[in-house]
């Protein structure tokens, strides 16, 4: 694996993106675990 991809993957692991709650979502939904 090239160093570029290795660094890119490590960066996403250390600084995850698209995580957490949105401040003002347009739509809200809830669901239960149906196990």
Explain what the structure shows.
It is elongated, with a radius of gyration of 16 Å. Helices cover about 35% and strands about 0% of the residues. It has about 35 residues and is mostly helical.
List the main descriptive attributes of the protein structure presented here.
35 residues, 1 helix
Topology:
Elements: H1 3-14
Mean pLDDT: 87
Q: Biggest sheet, in brief?
A: none
Q: Class by helix and strand content?
A: mainly alpha
What is Rg? 16 Å
Which outline best applies? Answer: elongated
Report low-confidence residues grouped into runs of 5 or more: none
Number of distinct beta strands:
0
End-to-end distance:
39 Å
What is the oligomeric state here? single chain
Strand fraction:
under 5%
Tally of DSSP helical segments: 1
Q: Give, in order, the helices and strands.
A: H
Task: Describe, in short, the structure shown.
The chain is an all-alpha fold and 35 residues long. It has one helix at 3-14. The protein is built from 1 helix and no strands.
